[in-house]
Design a protein that fits this description.
The chain is of the alpha/beta class and 242 residues long. The chain contains seven helices and eleven strands. The chain has two domains: 107 residues, Rossmann fold; 111 residues, Rossmann fold. Helix 1 packs across helix 7, helix 2 crosses helix 3 and helix 5 packs across helix 6. It is elongated, with a radius of gyration of 19 Å. The structure holds ligand 3Y8 and NADP nicotinamide-adenine-dinucleotide phosphate (NAP). The site of NADP nicotinamide-adenine-dinucleotide phosphate has 24 residues, from strand 1, helix 2 and helix 3.
Length: 242
């Protein structure tokens, strides 16, 4: 189950080793990145639907390589692996850590992120995608710079500028973007990994305030941090090309 930079790297290793694998997207975006594996797109239909899929496709191993904020999918995967008796391994990147000079405010959720913004009108970079924008309608006084994967419909924010871009992003580009838009606050999920880290490093370079949303708590499961560890767990070596 993919949708992250690390999942795409794992897909390349699995394809290179000729492992019988299927890549799964939720179908959140209009044109997801093509993968070197057979790909399915869309929800499974809850835990029951996932169990039906596992049985119908004779799935022997589930790799949950979804984003740390894809909590519902990860919870369903744990439940389905127990219910269907298939092995589950999570591929998860470590959370970002603040450097000594960073100006971070840690918050537990989106509501906490809204509360962490000042009341006086300011300029905010919302790098949280499309699904969580509504919460910020509570503070319409700010200018919001949004970065979205697909063009949005009507936005719930009166003073917003949307940039349509798909990561992974780079530090030079994000530094120029934040400077050009006079951004002073960044709202970010603690996604970890490299694909979304550029804005955090750019904020460090520019001395900007970062509101860091901590990850949702997930049920216990076996976790590794690299595609190589997943391949070893599956009994394959990651580096042997075909
Ligand atoms: C559909 C697949 C790869 C995967 C790339 C990573 C990196 C770029 C950075 C910013 C933050 C954000 C968002 C982000 C990043 C990677 C990775 C990552 C953040 C794609 C993808 C899918 C999605 C879904 C999308 C969400 C949104 C979140 C944008 C593909 C490109 C903000 C998360 O429009 C929507 O509804 C978008 C929804 C979930 C968060 C949200 O709540 O809006 N990702 N992102 C996956 C599916 O259908 O199963 O379309 O190609 C994947 C990637 N997005 O192959 O290299 O590994 O994290 N994705 C966040 O971290 O805050 C952007 O702008 O700095
Ligand atoms: P979520 O809230 O945890 O999951 C909601 C439902 O979406 C799941 O119950 C499942 O539907 C379906 N789903 C989620 N991921 C799926 C997958 N990989 N394959 C098939 N169905 C999936 O998920 P989300 O936060 O919206 O994330 C959706 C996708 O975007 C995931 O692939 C994730 O890796 C990627 N992504 C998310 C974020 C983020 O910030 N949340 C960032 C980057 C990438 P059913 O119950 O019907 O099975």
């Amino acid at each position: 189950m993919g949708g992250t930079t690390e999942a795409s790297a794992l897909a390349r290793s699995l394809a290179a080793q000729g492992v019988a694998a299927v890549f799964s997207y939720a179908g959140r975006t209009d044109h997801p990145v093509a993968q070197p594996l057979p790909t399915r797109i869309g929800g499974f239909g809850g835990v029951a639907g996932l169990c039906d899929y596992i049985r119908a496709e004779a799935i022997s191993h589930i790799i949950d390589a979804t984003h740390p904020f894809a909590a519902q999918m990860s919870r369903n995967a744990v439940e389905a692996s127990l219910a269907c008796g298939v092995q589950l391994l999570a591929l998860e990147r470590a959370p970002w850590q603040a450097a000594p000079a960073d100006d971070w405010t840690h918050v537990p959720d989106m509501a906490g992120a809204v509360a962490a913004l000042p009341d006086a009108p300011d300029r905010v970079f919302l790098a949280i995608g499309k699904q969580s924008l509504d919460a910020f309608a509570a503070k319409p006084q700010h200018h919001y710079l949004l970065r979205l994967v697909d063009p949005p419909g009507a936005l719930p924010l009166p003073d917003a500028h949307a940039i349509i871009a798909r990561g992974p992003f780079d530090v030079a580009g994000d530094t120029a973007l934040l400077r050009a838009h006079g951004i002073r606050h960044i709202i970010a999920k603690n996604a970890g990994g490299s694909g979304a880290a550029a804005k955090i490093l750019a904020a460090r370079a520019l001395g900007l305030h970062v509101v860091m949303i901590d990850r949702p708590v997930l049920p216990p499961r076996q976790v590794v941090g690299t595609a190589g560890a997943v391949m070893a767990w599956l009994g394959h070596s990651a580096d042997r090309g075909v």
